[in-house]
């Protein structure tokens, strides 16, 4: 099985889906001739032409709006928002139009569209190129929010997202793009949306995470194994809808839960996960549910030491796990 | 709002109490100060009053369980709800908030290896632990926690479930009770636990034919107190002899009248106590307590008197003995002795002693070396009054003599002051004559 990077898995999924279904097309800023600022759409314009690989104006509201309209008419648009930070002008289209289309038209219309957006920090992107925006959308029924952490999941989930009949926000952690490599089958496969996955089995502490911090958790778990602490790691993969069953099972596995995400603590997905566990797995709990998340500050600092402080890392995660293990 | 009721501090040196009987059960309503349960502490039986009015929701401590002071024993759902309590609730929150502002202290503690003995979390059960314990009939009191602060973790319970039930030594020791329903088992186990925690003294072997007498709570308390006193307070001992011929004559003359008038016998003890009390006023250091970096001179003079029963020794207190006449003292002694023998001493009766008078003469002793009633400064024992030939006014005479023995805490007192004190007691006792008015 070939080993490829996270971003190459994005490209492969896009290419395969465009080959499979000619209704699939990509649009966004610099996705065509440039092949995307992160090279996610590299080579697509050459293969599929400018009719299916659209360079758009710097107008996120239009990118999303075009996708809404096209999808309503049966196309399968995959819109790229260059940085998740820039999604704000498109929020009205995504939240008020795409998310509600099926509901308000009484099933007459729906939006089978995907909005891809690189999110997250750790790349010296500072304020406008580092934000985690996923939690802003996980409170919107009608949307699906997907945040893969491995190349395998990227390919499988992106395919599922493109084939989904309703709008899917597909958030790719940009630090993972070239940092995370993994085996990806060449053949066609999908990973179901709404299914979390146990990435590591353990018995002392359960860590629930997604995206880049999932890798921090795995690293911490590896390190802690040497100290005799066995860590169970669940990758949420999809934030909306949450895989309740998997969350409850993972929480019950150890009774000690740590939820880790880079998105800031307040209002983050961790709060929702924690509430599910508290309500439905209360008698499995052996310790207060803990959350480890980005600080509640307005933005990622540009200063490298401050960025480092803002970002989580395997050590911070390991410390939190250790505390729970000792409890 | 549920209010936690904890084992109260039933006396200054009391550290734990055994719930002998619950007077309320869950669902019962109680009014403030109404007794919730009976508790046997070191030396006294007491009732724990409700701290609030409301409904008993949960009995945490089982009958027969020995609970440390401050530990939760039951919960009362307060009546009237939040509106009434707001004031109190807020007050309680304040210290909690303060604690929050110093979070650095707690993690630091966690790193210290000294924390080994910390069991502050021993009875903080997580939902998982409670559920598993209940489902598998595990008595959490028997489980050794491996978590922070001795907390019993879910893993601890899972390990027990996997490794099979806890050993139950009690059942083997008391096969007769095996027939009893399961509910009785926890209580038995608990009763056995403290004993098990105290290992047998080293070098003590039990040979065939020897009888093993289990140590009662009172006996254990006495043992512990005596050890504490001997361990903490460096004892010094001194003795004087007093000629109480006059006192003997006085008592002989008035005792029948006294008995008829007051209904109680007139003994020598009130005279001794009076002499001691009056002398204590002259030597306040004898009526003091060692406070580590200070000596606390007690204002009140409360005399502890040793009262023996067949199996134990109690030390009830005559409060404000300096305000009492011989008659008052005689009555107080009589009452306390009666109450002791009837097992009706209250907490109040046992608290606050500042000096102890020990009447060893009552069983014929002529000299004794009493152990100080810790943390008091000294203890005096009155020995038997014995007729002896002595030189009296340059002649051989038969006189009634008594030895007064004093043990003193040498940290507080030196021999000089103790000697002077004893001299004053002696003088006072010798001043009695057949015609003294009491």
Automatic annotation (TrEMBL), chain A:
Keywords: Oxidoreductase, Thiamine pyrophosphate. SUPFAM superfamilies: Thiamin diphosphate-binding fold (THDP-binding), TK C-terminal domain-like. Gene3D superfamilies: 3.40.50.920, 3.40.50.970. One of its GO terms (molecular function) is oxidoreductase activity. Residues 4-179 form the Transketolase-like pyrimidine-binding domain. SMART domains: Transket_pyr (SM00861). It comes from the Bacteria. Transmembrane segments: none annotated. Its cofactor is thiamine diphosphate. This is 2-oxoisovalerate dehydrogenase subunit beta.
Automatic annotation (TrEMBL), chain B:
GO terms for cellular component: cytoplasm. Belongs to the 2-oxoacid dehydrogenase family. SUPFAM superfamilies: CoA-dependent acyltransferases, Peripheral subunit-binding domain of 2-oxo acid dehydrogenase complex, Single hybrid motif. Pfam families: 2-oxoacid_dh, Biotin_lipoyl, E3_binding. Residues 80-122, 168-215 are annotated as: Disordered. Its cofactor is (R)-lipoate. It comes from Marinithermofilum abyssi. The keyword Transferase applies. This is Dihydrolipoamide acetyltransferase component of pyruvate dehydrogenase complex.
């Amino acid at each position: 099985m070939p080993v490829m990077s996270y971003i190459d898995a994005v490209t492969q999924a896009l290419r395969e889906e465009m080959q499979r279904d000619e209704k699939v097309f990509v649009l966004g800023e610099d996705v065509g001739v440039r092949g995307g600022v992160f090279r996610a759409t590299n080579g697509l314009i050459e293969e599929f032409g400018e009719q299916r690989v659209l360079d758009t104006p710097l107008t996120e509201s239009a990118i999303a709006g075009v996708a809404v309209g096209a999808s309503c008419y049966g196309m399968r648009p995959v819109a790229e928002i260059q940085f998740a930070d820039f999604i704000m002008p498109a929020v009205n289209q995504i939240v008020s139009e795409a998310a509600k289309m099926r509901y308000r038209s009484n099933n007459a219309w729906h939006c089978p569209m995907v909005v891809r957006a690189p999110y997250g920090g750790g790349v010296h992107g500072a304020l406008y190129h580092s934000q985690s925006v996923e939690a802003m959308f996980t409170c919107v029924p009608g949307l699906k929010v997907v945040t893969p952490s491995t190349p395998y999941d990227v390919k499988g989930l992106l395919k599922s997202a493109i084939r989904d009949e309703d709008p899917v926000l597909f958030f790719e952690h940009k630090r993972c793009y070239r940092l995370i490599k993994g085996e990806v089958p060449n053949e066609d496969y999908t990973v179901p949306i709404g299914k979390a996955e146990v990435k590591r089995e353990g018995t002392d502490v359960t860590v629930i995470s997604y995206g880049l911090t999932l890798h921090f958790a795995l690293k911490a778990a590896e390190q802690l194994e040497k100290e005799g602490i066995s860590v169970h790691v669940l990758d949420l993969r999809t934030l909306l809808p949450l895989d309740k069953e998997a969350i409850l099972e993972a929480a019950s596995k150890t009774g000690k839960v740590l939820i880790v995400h880079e998105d800031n603590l307040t209002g983050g997905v961790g709060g929702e996960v924690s509430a599910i566990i508290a309500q439905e797995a209360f008698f499995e709990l052996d310790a207060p549910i803990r959350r480890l998340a980005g600080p509640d500050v307005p933005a990622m600092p540009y200063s490298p030491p401050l960025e480092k402080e803002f970002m989580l890392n395997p050590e911070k995660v390991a410390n939190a796990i250790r505390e729970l293990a000792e409890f | 709002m549920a209010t936690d009721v904890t084992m109260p501090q039933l006396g200054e040196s009391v550290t734990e109490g055994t719930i002998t009987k619950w007077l309320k059960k869950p669902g019962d309503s109680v009014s403030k100060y109404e007794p919730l349960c009976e508790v046997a502490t070191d030396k006294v039986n007491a009732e724990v009053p409700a701290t609030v009015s409301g409904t008993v929701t949960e009995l945490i401590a089982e009958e027969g369980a020995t609970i440390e002071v401050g530990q939760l024993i039951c919960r009362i759902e307060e009546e009237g709800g939040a509106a009434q309590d707001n004031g109190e609730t807020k007050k309680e929150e304040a210290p909690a908030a303060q604690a929050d502002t110093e979070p650095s202290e707690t993690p630091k503690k966690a790193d210290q290896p000294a924390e080994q003995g910390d069991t502050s979390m021993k009875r903080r059960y997580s939902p998982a632990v409670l559920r598993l314990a209940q489902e598998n009939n595990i008595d959490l009191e028997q489980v050794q926690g491996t978590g922070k602060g001795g907390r019993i973790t879910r893993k601890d319970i899972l390990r027990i479930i996997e490794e099979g039930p806890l050993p139950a030594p009690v059942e083997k020791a008391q096969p007769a009770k095996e027939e009893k329903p399961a509910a009785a088992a926890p209580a038995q186990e608990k009763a056995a636990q403290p004993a098990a925690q105290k290992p047998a003294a080293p070098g003590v072997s039990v040979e065939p034919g020897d009888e093993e007498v289990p140590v009662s709570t009172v006996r254990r308390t006495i043992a512990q107190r005596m050890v504490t006193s001997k361990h903490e307070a460096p004892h010094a001992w001194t003795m004087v002899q007093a000629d109480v011929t006059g006192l003997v004559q006085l008592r002989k003359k008035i005792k029948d009248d006294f008995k008829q008038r007051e209904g109680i016998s007139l003994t020598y003890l009130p005279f001794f106590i009076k002499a001691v009390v009056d002398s204590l006023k002259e030597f306040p250091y004898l009526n003091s307590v060692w406070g580590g970096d200070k000596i606390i001179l007690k204002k009140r003079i409360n005399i502890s008197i040793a009262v023996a029963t067949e199996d134990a020794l109690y030390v009830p207190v005559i409060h404000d003995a300096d305000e009492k006449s011989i008659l008052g003292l005689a009555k107080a002694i009589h009452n306390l002795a009666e109450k002791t023998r009837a097992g009706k001493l209250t907490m109040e009766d046992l608290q606050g002693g500042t000096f102890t008078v020990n009447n060893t003469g009552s069983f014929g002793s002529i000299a004794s070396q009493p152990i100080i009633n810790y943390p008091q400064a000294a203890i005096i024992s009155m020995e038997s009054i014995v007729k002896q030939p002595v030189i009296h006014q340059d002649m051989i005479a038969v006189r009634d003599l008594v030895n007064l023995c004093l043990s003193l805490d040498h940290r507080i007192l030196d021999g000089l002051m103790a000697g002077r004190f004893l001299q004053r007691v002696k003088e006072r006792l010798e001043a009695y004559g057949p015609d003294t008015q009491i």
